[in-house]
Amino acid sequence: MRLEQADISSLFSNTQIPDIFFSEYLSGANGDFVKVYLYMLFLSKYDKDIKVNDLSKKLVLPLKTIQDAVKYWEEQGVITKKNTGYIINSLQEIELHKLYKPKTALSVEQLQKSQENQQRAKAIEHINNKYFSGLMPTTWYPDIELWFKKYNFDEEVMIALFGYCFDRSALHKAYIQRVAEAWFKNNIKTFNDLDNYYEKQEKVKMIANTISKKLGLHRALSEYEYGYVEKWTIDFAYSFDVIEIALKKTTSKANPNFDYLNKLLSDWHDRGFKTPTEIQNFLTEMKQKNRNVQKLEKSTGYSKYDQREYDNLNSLYANLNY
Known about the structure:
Blueprint: E1 2-4, H1 19-25, H2 31-44, H3 52-59, H4 63-75, E2 79-81, E3 85-88, H5 91-108, H6 115-131, H7 140-151, H8 155-167, H9 173-185, H10 191-214, H11 223-235, H12 240-248, H13 258-270, H14 276-300, H15 312-317
Parallel strand pairs: 1-3
Antiparallel strand pairs: 2-3
Helix pairs in contact: 2-4, 3-4, 6-8, 10-11
């Protein structure tokens, strides 16, 4: 694998790393990948030939890690594959191209100066000063403008978005984009929308923790289990008083699980039940129905349980602990 760069006249020269690497690439890259890139950058000054196996031994990294790192930097456009090896590209040129391209797209739809534009400019400047210490790379500006257009966030939500990611030490574009998508899917546009979303999420978190304790799980819920709790709490608008009724009905089950809980709660929601009283009355009726069935079986001498035909409802509530 041959690595090439612009002509280097002195063997004892320094290996220069452009600032754009630290502001645009460092936070999103795996530590081992950074290690591979820096060594490749060093070797490229001397137009060196090096095999992947030798690179693996030199850096004390598994061969697959070297291969994954090379693939990663190639996908980022930082290096370019040639027949004889790779070229280490200029990061400044890459970012200049990114900066030029979106600004060209925006200039076609450029609006007249307005109060909205001025407010957005102030919001972006606030983000720059608070989360980048006034050193936000210029490539972020058109991205923020495009996020404003794509998600229709107001200025306070955009600032809160950066604050959320900053607090999680994840202030890079890929993560910000994922969070923005999640907020957009939850119809967040104004700060009031965001406040309501946080309130709902806090309620879900509290109920999830309580469910985990009630079931004796001694662990945090999985992503899918947590999704069920969000469904019951937000979509069904059920309080823990209702969910607890379902939890108590699992005591007769050898292996109670969230699928079974979801079937119970979904059935109650489909029936339009909203309060614990409505559900308890329904369960009492189901209890009496099951007793009548058992009494009829006893009087007729028909007790072959496995031959009875149950519909989905009877299967759900059969042998339920009341």
